[in-house]
Amino acid sequence: MRATDDAMRGDSSESRITMRIKTERWQRELRLHVLSEGTETALVRIEAPAKERGTATLKVEQNIWNYLPKVDRTIKVPGSMMQAAWMGSHFTNDDLVHESRYSEDFECAYRERPADASGHWLVRCIPLPDAPVVWGAIDARFRAQDMLLDQAEYFDERDRLVRTIRYEDFGPLGGRTLPRRLRVIPADDADEFTEIVYEEHAFNVDLPPGTFSLRSLRQ
Asked: Fewer CB atoms inside 10 A, N or C side of the chain?
């Protein structure tokens, strides 16, 4: 579980990502530039489409701010909006704030073991009482061949499936073998999804002082 926690993390990182969102009523595609440092700070800026270029989100510990360039306004996201969709996707503001770690925030136990190298390990993860986790449980599935996570099912406190995240297109990414695409599928509508494709990714990059500041958010 520690290896899973660390697979997509470094002291810092820089990514360019394509995010595709499909709902019952509309579809959209965003090109994102993402900077992060540890698990406490991140800056996400929209680069395309042109009409949304410059819209940005800053995360610092438990706080989130959005910058709207059309009105030149910075807005702090209130606690009452933490379960709201981020940028119209199937991720919430709370997903950005609470980057939980399997090895620290959950008690995990095997549910299924693979018969051979082509199979999977299935691990049930229950959040610890004081963990900053909104889920009742997560079923994490790992490929037996390399122990990389390829699916996670998220359940509420009544053990009802809420969403599934599938990790796909495994290959070189930032000098590691990682999934280069992930798809979030809500349980109440299997035709909807949010897909993230990593176009570029680098670990342990040098970021200038002030990268994660309100001033940087507006630039």
From this structure: C
